[in-house]
Each structure stands twice: as C-alpha cells, then as structure tokens.
Specification:
With 349 residues, the chain is α/β, with parallel strands linked by helices. The protein is built from 14 helices and ten strands. Strand 8, helix 10 (230-247) and strand 9 (255-262) form a beta-alpha-beta unit. The relative contact order is 0.11.
Length: 349
C-alpha cells in the first residue's frame, strides 16, 4: 500500500493522500489480490540521519554534498507517512474481502499486550481478515526519534519472543499473567477475542538464523525472508527446517513468503521508462546517489508479465508459497497493479 514510507506518497498534497490510499485499497480488492500490506514506520529519514549519513561532508564532496548545498532539504524530509495500525483499523472498516497485513510490525514500538488488544479489535471489525506480521525491529533512527530503547540484537529478539508469547496468550486465554525478562502482565484480559481461531495468524519476519527462524519455527504460520535471491531463500528455508525439527514443528505447515519491489509494463521499453520515472521521482526527495541506488532495487524484479512470472516461478519451485509485492508507482499510476493482476496472477492459479 502507498502510505508514505519509501516516498510512495511524495509530492501529493496531504488532503489528497487518504482518498488515494483508500482508492488503491478498493482497486486491490476489486482486482482479486488476496491481501494488502502496510509497513510499520513513522517517518522516512529524520534531519539527524540526513545530516549524519546522507548529506555528510566527505573527502568527495561532489558525491554527497552538504546541508549548506541543499536549501530545500527540509522539504525533502517532510513527507506523509501513515501509521500502520491506524491504517489497519481504517481499512478494516472500509474494505470487505481483502486480508490486511503489516510487513512487518516492529515489536519494540508498542507493548505487546496493547498490540494484542488492538489487533483483536481490528480482527473483529474486519470480520476476521487480519494477518499479524511481527519482527524485532531494525531502524535505529526511528527508535531514537520517537524515544524507544534500541537494545542490542539479543535484547530485541528476546522482546520479540516474549511479545509473540504474550499476544498468543491474550488471544487464546481468559486471564493472562506473564513474568518475562522484558514484559510482566498481572491478570490481563483481552476481549473481544479475535474472530479467527485459534488466533490471528503470525507472520514472523526476518532471516536471522539462530534466533528469528527459531522463533518462527515455534510460533509462525508464515515466515518472510529471502528477497535477495533464490539461493538465499533456499538457505534460510534449510535453517528453518532444522529449527522445526528441533522444536517438533511440521516444516511444511509454515508458509514461506518473500517481498518484491516491482514495476510492471507490457514491453521492456516501457519497463525501462518506468524505472527511469522512479529514479527521477525519487530524485526530487533524495540525494542523486541515493535515488539511483533505491530505484536500482527495482531492476531485478521489474519486467513484463512474462518476465515476472518466470522469476516468481523460480521462487515457487524453491518452496515460496506467498509473494508480497510493492508497486512503486501505485499512488500515481495503476498500470503495474492492473497488468500484474491480469497477466501474472492467473499463472499461479
């Protein structure tokens, strides 16, 4: 979904953004997609990160520039970014059939008992259409900006494990007490319970081999990893399979998913034109090198419908059961979305 993260609503007046988001959701539902997804981010890049990492003066000033070289720098960072669970609630009430997910919720941004309550309510509002994407969190500047502690990986992964345990308990038990290293509950109640039974499906996101995939083996109905190639996907799958064996989970019961950045057009020339548009669009809001690099992340997974089907089939043969697609142009032009629905989806039905 276009929500502002990754500049997917950049340049659009704020009063027009929600109508566009809702219109996209209606199109996703109309075109027969199984689900729609949002990111869990509050901002793109805050001033401190721009100063420290993007506009930092170096021995090669032409490569990065300086803050002084960019008088319009404040405009570049003041872009709409809708909060994920606000959108979940709004879309639960304004769509009818499409499933609703986040890829993925940052566990450290909300107490898990509170998140369990919010998710349960949204599952009821939506008629049982919620997916629970959850991960340990990674974006340190966002944690700093909003005042959340950013623990070392072991701490964040410990919080993730406890958070998933708490959410599952609140969705399935009448009264929950929990005494963990990071969270403590004393007689928590969660009513309404989710409509889905036994509970809202968990998507444990991330490919961390020692801990994240172990948490997935214990609790996930879905996983999400391996976007950097089929070989990576196969490797992570093997690690997950090993953890499933260790904890006694049926490996085949967990659906493995991957995210892809896509621009779709009828011809290779038109695909190239879309990629050029994306780089130019991002260049209005990012330094040139960053815009080029970010747009380059769409090169390998954009193409004509036949090309996209071919590489998706490769992932499917490797065991991927679910693909989540970001269409970079979706707030401005629905061609990629509609062409994908018309000519790519049928190849997998």
């Amino acid at each position: 979904m276009p929500q502002g993260w990754r500049w997917t609503l950049a340049g659009i007046p704020v009063e027009e953004t929600w109508p566009i988001v809702l219109d996209v959701a209606k199109d996703i539902e109309r075109l027969g997609f199984d689900s729609l997804w949002v990111y869990d981010h509050f901002q793109n890049f805050p001033p401190s990160e721009w100063a420290d990492h993007v506009w930092k003066t170096t021995t090669d000033p032409e490569a990065h520039g300086t803050l002084a070289d960019s008088p319009d720098e404040p405009e570049r960072i003041q872009e709409v970014t809708y909060e994920a669970w606000t959108l979940m609630a709004a879309l639960a009430a304004t769509t009818d059939t499409v499933r609703l997910g986040q890829m993925c919720t940052c566990n450290t941004y909300r107490p898990p008992a509170y998140l369990a309550k919010v998710a349960a309510c949204i599952d009821v509002i939506s008629g049982g259409r919620l997916e629970m994407g959850i991960g340990a969190g990674w974006y340190v500047a966002e944690h700093d900006g909003y005042g959340y502690d950013f623990l070392p990986p072991g701490g964040r992964l410990g919080m993730l494990r406890e958070g998933v345990e708490i959410m599952k308990a609140l969705w399935t038990e009448d009264v929950v007490s929990y005494d963990g290293s990071h969270y403590t509950l004393k007689g928590a109640l969660c009513e309404p319970k989710p409509m889905q039974k036994p509970h809202v499906p968990f998507w444990i996101a991330g490919g961390g081999e020692k801990v994240t995939l172990n948490i997935a083996a214990r609790y996930a109905q879905y996983t999400n990893f391996g976007a950097d190639g089929v070989e990576s996907f196969l490797h992570k799958s093997d690690i997950l399979k090993g953890h499933c064996g260790d904890v006694g989970t049926d490996f085949d019961s967990i659906v493995r998913s991957t995210n892809f950045n896509v621009l779709c057009a009828p011809t290779e020339q038109e695909v190239a034109e879309k990629l050029a548009w994306l780089e130019g669009h991002l260049g209005k809001y990012l330094p040139e090198r960053r815009a080029k690099s970010f747009a380059g992340g769409f090169n390998a997974t954009s193409g004509t419908p036949d090309q996209i089907v071919a590489w998706l089939k490769g992932y499917q043969e490797a065991g991927m059961g679910y693909a989540i697609i970001q269409f970079a142009d979706i707030a401005y032009d629905r061609e990629s979305l509609e062409l994908f629905a018309r000519e790519v989806i049928p190849a997998f039905e």
